[in-house]
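Recall the central idea of this unit: under ordinary conditions, the amino acid sequence of a chain determines the structure it adopts. In this exercise we apply that idea directly, starting from the sequence alone.
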Amino acid sequence: MKLGAFSVSLSVKDIHASKKFYEDLGFSVLGGDIKKNYLIMKNDNALVGLFQGMFENNILTFNPGWDENGKNTDSFQDVRDIQKELKSKGMPLITEADEATEGPASIMVSDPDGNVILIDQHR
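Accordingly, the structure predicted from this sequence is:
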């Protein structure tokens, strides 16, 4: 299974304070919009998403079709195919993608400890 680029999506209280903190750790802004309360920060191959007021807990995020620079990869496993594979293994999904569609879609699963994993395809 190819899940794509990995990042940690953090639910932050103050996006400006979090931005400064991660910049002090050597991260720089890769994407997002601070006016919309979200940023994607990058340090080498490490990605951290900062999200203020968008969700309650931190999320592990994978992006099929993207590399760690937010660039399209030549080939990728569609999120709907990943969904079918997870369902065939009996894994319960929190949210599902409509298998009759194409393009952007996402699914969510939870690991045995309750950590949420978002598989979010943007293309």
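The beta strands are 5-12, 28-33, 38-43, 46-52, 59-63, 105-110, 116-121.
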